[in-house]
Amino acid sequence: MQSLSRTIRSSVTPRLSPHSFRFTSTHRTPSGAHHGHETHRTHHRPSGGKKAFDALAKTLLFGTFAISVYTLGALYPPDLATFISPRSAPASPHLHSEEGKEHTEEIEVTLKSLPIVKEYAVKEGWYTCRPYATMDPAKIHHSLTAGTLRGPGRLAVPPLVFAKEDESEAVIVLHLGRSLCGHDGIVHGGMVGVVLDEATGRNALLNLPTKIGVTANLNINYRAPTRANQFVVIRTKLQELKGRKVVVSAEMKSLEGELLADATAIYIEPKWAPLLANSGVAELLGKNPKQAKP
């Protein structure tokens, strides 16, 4: 009977399928010993709504960053970007138009307010002048720097010159306009040569006996691109004076002090210069008002 009872109990004992219980994970101790219990952890997948929210947040963050970078780049473009793709600018107004007059006046007011101008205006042993201010209007049209290149967008106003009374040095402040470019936005190298020739020439000629001279040599080193529509400062210095030969050096810098170009020039007084001694060149260049007229 006992054997029969065991057989019946065995036949009615429920058999569990291997898949009756499903565990996500089982944790055992590092030693592999079973402590009589198992820990089950369920991994929850994020819902579709949370995924969409995260994606939207990332998109908004990236968009805000991109707009900020673009705005800053437009307001304060890096140097390389403006060299490659300068900002567009309208054509320069006509000299005698209302817009042209306003532009010229604005440049003049700004020029006189520059710290370097205020400094040299009261410097002991120096005098101030504006070259070509007394030039005959009938002749000014045929002068490159006093006529042809004068006007808004070019040389809007005459350069302001501060010279030592002994004519050994000079400081020239001038504005180079937007329409003097080779590569767009950069002043043409030939234009830089013109203003350096004018600057060194003034210093040289006023040291010659007859105040008449011609350029024999002008050697220029271009140190950095000269941006258009800015004020520049040219400093000239007498290096040598020997008979009819004068050597003058010059440096052209931005208002911030960046060296843009430097030059050395040799001027010679022609043998026929005495025939033009009364041509008024010294007055046109702006000589020292304390000196008596010849």
UniProtKB/TrEMBL annotation:
It holds the Pfam family 4HBT. Residues 185-260 form the Thioesterase domain. Residues 1-50 are annotated as: Disordered. Residues 1-14 have a biased composition (Polar residues). Residues 37-48 have a biased composition (Basic residues). This is Uncharacterized conserved protein. The lineage of its organism: Eukaryota, Fungi, Dikarya, Basidiomycota, Agaricomycotina.
